[in-house]
Amino acid sequence: MTIHQSVIAALTTAAALWSQEPCSDRVQSLERQVAAQNRVMRDWGGLIRYGSDDSELPPPAAGEDRVVFLGDQITEFWTRTDPNFFAQKSRLNRGIAGQTTDQMLIRFRQDVIDLHPKAVVILAGLNDIAGLHGTATEEMIVDNLMSMSELARANGIRVVLASVTPVCDCFTNGTARRRWQERIGEVNELIAKYCARSGATFLNYFRALADDDNLKKQFTTDGVLPNDAGYRVMAQLAEKSVAEALAR
Amino acid sequence: MQRIPKTLLIALGCLTAWGADWLTDGNNPQRTNWQKDEKILTPANARNMKLLWKVKLDNEPRQMHSLFPPLIVERVNTGSGVKQIALETGVSDNIYAIDVETGKVLWKKHFIAGYTPPQNQRGAGILCPGGITATPVIAPAGAGKYSVYVASWDGSLHQLNLADGEDIKPPAKFMPPNGKPYGLNLWNNVIYTHTAQGCGGNPNMVYTYDLATGKVGSWGPAGGGMWGREGPAISSNGTMYTGTGDGNFNPEVGAFGNGIVGIKQNPETKAAELVDYFGPSNAAWLWKRDLDMQVTPAIFNYKGKELMIDAGKECRLYLLDTESIGGDDHRTPLYRSPLICNEDVNFASAGIWGSLATWEDAKGTRWALTPFWGPKHSAFKAPVEYGDVQHGAIAAFKVEERNGKWQLTPAWISRDMNRAEPPVVANGIVFAYGSGEDTDQAYPDVGLDDVASRRIPGSTRAVLYALDAETGRELWSSGDQIASWNHWSGLSVANGRVYIGTFDSILYCFGIQKP
Fold first, then answer.
1. Do B285 and A39 touch (CB under 8 A)?
2. A42 vs B284, B289, B344: nearest CB
3. DSSP classification of residue B219
């Protein structure tokens, strides 16, 4: 083989490798996505996440004000940021990242009712608005929230319904989240109205975290998830709303 | 007194110390699945293992059941001399004695039950195949003589002479017909077993048979069948332990589902009595998700304690002290492992099934081994692993006491095996196999449809593996030499031979070819 031929062969091989590597990465990425989707489909309600833990929890002691926080990633990651908020009092974090309200409704009995709390704080709807599992109208979202509330009340559990938290495009040049903002406002309006007529406590995180429609940059690291400061604001509001609900 | 030459004494000692038997499921009443007496197979020569023989038996499979693990006796006095015999049990009420040197059937016994299962009773599905469902147990009865105890389909206990298959005593009533007993165990002249699945309309019970008096004792956990594949394990004080299947765990109302129970025969009344029990802290979850504690425990001594390991479909190992298996509250084990597999909470094709194994190496390290089905849990790691595990594997742990606390420390995870089945440890080798069975019970198009007509065509072939017991490294595999699969069976190992039976009623014998 001449030097000329060797160079051509090496270039050809490199080109082939260069074109194959991104392709195999892409296949692996797709396989991971399919596996993740399959897992969600096999356990749509997310009953596995807390099912075993729930069964190990003893009934509340006499005088114990157990409160369950039900929600999505904003609730789930709260413990990471501020574990003391849940550890200090009888508060149980039952958030599952990526869940929509219909999924929470499925696990409401296992993760809320069967734990016999005095109150439940429901923070949900953002993933529905984002269309994570397909299109969901504002009415569909609130239907699910109302169903959870009615299940709670039928079991003697006080309901605190939180507003959907604000979002912003403050860390990107895009405008994707701006499209969610109008819908967040509509859902929050429906939640507030339902609370007013049903006697549930409305927990308005939105007002405290937003500047107009935008999540204030000082309360977030990515435009969706609260940071330490954001969770501190939420903690104060949640504590106040739970106290109100328990006093009713 | 006449003096016996020293060399003769040494020779006799060697002779008696040489042979290995496998007289009961799991090789001993403790169900350790440790063949301590194996001397021929070694990690160094395991790679030379070959198929020594295979024999097709005339046993008719029932549902997915066919052959049970053979029992092995190294020296049996027969009419044609001393023979090493494998006693093979076929589900269709068949017992075969096989000469292990040749693979030839020496005698066969077929029990004629005279029993017809009534219509409309649970008794015609995979879970209730009918026929013999319990591996028999063999007891020495004098030099070179052995008694075989078998529970036949009609609920009778038979006592046969291993040499020729003849009845030693007339069959005796042991339990109702058409039930589903599991691996018989023998301790202090009492036969123990337990039943499950409510087969034949019978309640799920522990049964004891007192060989001296013929008295039967029974006890039931009120929900939760006991379906540890190798039957109960028995501790040094004669308590038999077994896991319980799906059911409520509420001792206040006498319900012991999804737990572990300890039963002992009352030596005076001969009644079977509950003496201890354990309920996992998440027993309610196990019940809700059909994650039975259905594994035969293994019992062993270590550091002055008698310990027990057990597991279930949830895919955790429990380490317990037989002094009090759940502590004062009956819910506190010595140690509870993290989840090893079954991240998706699959009740049919994942988790720990069958039985466990435990052994002690020359350095005094005590090992605990579990098979599991399905993918390894993403959060479970061992220092030594052999690639992605998707269909099942063997996980090995070291039993350790650190600062007064007991634990099972992960040591290695084997290569992927298609539905890894209970392992056997022999002379530094772990023998394990993937059964190749289609274990799915539910399907997207029809939901739950646990029928043999679906699962048999989906089953493939069993593959036997020899692994280095200290590292899990693969030393040898049977490759495609085994043509069929098996369900609810197991391995037996003795005297350089490893036995495995398959659905097509073929018994395979692998070992080292004699020069």
1. no
2. B344
3. E
Take residue B411 and report the two structure tokens written for it. 């040591």
Residues A38 and A123 in one domain: no
Q: Which of A43, A55, A56 sits opposite B344 (nearest CB)?
A: A43
* Residue B6 belongs to some domain of the structure: no
Q: Is the ipTM of this complex over 0.90?
A: no
DSSP string, A115-133: G--SEEEEE--HHHHTTBT
In chain B, the number of structural domains is 1
| Range B138-151 burial, b when 16+ CB lie within 10 A, else e | bbeeeeeebbbbbb
Per DSSP, helices labelled H in chain A are: 3-42, 47-56, 73-76, 78-81, 83-88, 101-106, 108-111, 126-129, 138-154, 176-198, 205-209, 228-247
What distance, in Å, lies between the first and last C-alpha atoms of chain A?
89
CB atoms within 10 A of CB B296: 29
- Shared domain check, A80 and A19: no
Domain annotation covers residue B78: yes
- Output the domain CATH number for residue A117: 3.40.50.1110
Its pTM stands at 0.91
Three-state secondary structure call for residue B95: strand
Domain assignment of residue A102, given as a range: 45-247
pLDDT class of B123 with cuts at 50, 70, 90: low
Kindly state the average pLDDT of the residues B211-225.
Answer: 93
Whether the predicted pLDDT of A95 surpasses 60 = yes
- A chain contacts of residue B281, beta-carbon cutoff 8 Å: 55-56
Cβ contacts of A55 on chain B, cutoff 8 Å: 281-285, 288
| Separation of first and last alpha carbons in chain B | 43
For residue B285, give the nearest of A39, A43, A55 by CB distance. A55
Residues A21 and A117 in one domain: no
Q: What is the CATH number of the domain that holds B204?
A: 2.140.10.10
Sign, CA torsion A151/A156/A162/A163? positive
Q: Which domain holds residue B493?
A: 20-512
